[in-house]
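Q: Joint fold for the lines below.
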Amino acid sequence: MSKPKVFEKPIGVKDYLPLAVAKLRRIERQALDCMSQWGYEQIITPTMEFYDTVGVASATSDQKLFKLLNNRGTTLVLRSDMTAPIARVVSSLLKETAFPLRLSYHANVFRAIEEEAGRDAEFYQTGVELVGDPSAEADAEVVALAIASLKAAGVERFKIAIGHVGFLNGLFEETLPNRPEAQEALKACLLGRDYVGYREKLRELKLAEPVQRELEGILRLRGGQEICDQAMEMSVDATAKSSIKHLCEIWDVLKAYGVCDNVLIDLTMIGDFSYYTGMTFEGYAADLGFPVVSGGRYDNLLTQFGRPAPATGFALKTTRILELLGSEEEPQPERVLIGYDALGREAALEQAQQLRAEGVIVVTVRMEAAEANANSAKQSGYAKFIPFFGAQESKGEQTK
Amino acid sequence: MSGQQDILKVAMPKGRIYKQASKLFREAGLPIPVDFDDSRKLIIEVPDARMEFIMAKPVDVPTYVEYGVADIGIVGKDVLMEENKDVYELLDLGIAKCRMSVIGLPDWKPAIHPRVATKYPNVASQYFRELGQQVEVIKLNGSIELAPLIGLADRIVDMVETGQTLRENGLVEMESIFGITSRLIANRVSYRMKNDQIQKLCDLLQHTLAAKA
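A: Joint structure:
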């Protein structure tokens, strides 16, 4: 690559100008406030971690991690999510703290990306982890909190799809016993959202007619509670059954939360099998091409840090929510301009401090009295102009 | 939900595939007029079918769908394999059938520095890597068959429909890599937010295809 031009920055990173920052901060604040009302306490972890600990444990694939070397030659990573760093903290600094732990975070995370994909290499996530509770109640709590946070952040029309990795694991084990390659191939198709490939693989496997029809049928397992009942009929496998039972329980709890309108069950919605161990979910907002929230249960992660524990959580993609709400008018706080000359300085700055203490935004500018009258450009963008010229007190407010 | 929500945005490939796809849509009972493709309009409303067609260059269809500016799209498997976008591949429409193949001169012998010319550099690289061959892939934008004839490359990777062009230029199909048909694809979010409409369309098309088979 040739030397970058002075205005250029690396692909995938962004600047945020004041108007966008105001909106982004509001989204984050409202989401974090919501999480704190549910008893989640915010923590901060470092931007850099060791590759061999957090880097290896994270759900992000190796080639998507930003790696760097420290001065001793040890490989570091820029955090690619907050789940693995929090698992590290829970297993070390918070080792003595009893479960369940409710933690929230707001952080920038980094993913190395292919150049043309137009995705962010650095973006912001606000989320929670609920550690030490294996129950359906805990899973339902994070789903309900994700819904509450989206609403708090101002997202109006959205849907959450919930799935469970255990159902497919169990169903495949039952229908394709001792055929791990066939199972992997089918899962790879579903993970790649390739339904055509999935049907082709099924035909190649030459299964008995009812089995094939059943496995093709899961592509349609999408909807409300009735899906749980249908799925329950499909499999006698213990893993599949207990997964569906767990999902039914989550649904019941969500019903009690009164949020089922926003939720659909989708048993083809599967996250990364090597990472997620139970319920997984994704949230979609109308008019935005990419998911705004994702999460699920990951009961194996904490083992890698030496404190085995079940855990579940989610991350809101606040920069995507900003994209969604970006065109909405943000209420602008009132700004006041105080102009003063040498003689009026003391009174002017005192007045400014007083107004700021009352919560008003005040900008002070040294100027000449003549300028104040003639040059309105300096005063534009302010709701009010207060002059302090000469020795006497303010001549009164001049409203623009 | 009402208004804008009900309209399904469909990225349609201009040209060869469009004619066959719109015919299939009509066979499925969707009121799609016949003569769209000749018009120069880029966005065509089909209010009777509650759809809006975005007339796109075929290779761009997966991009529109991935970003969600189109809810669904119709695209050849060749483009899907090459572009590798994160979209749902819902249905094999069975139209625009052809195959991706390795092509060369009849007297081809392994070259010291093998070079492969193609419109599909990702597909070609991946195929030869899986065979354990390191080849230099040269991206061309058209008339790929020229490359072995004038010595730019010793083999090419390209789509073969009838094999007519190959025969006329004295080339032979050496291996077939994968079969190609057009697919119905969907955006990750639209597939959930407009699930009823997309599922209904899928079912209609699937029935039509099953009836034809």
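Q: Anything notable?
A: Chain A is about 40% helix and 20% strand. The first strand of chain A starts at residue 41 and ends at 42.
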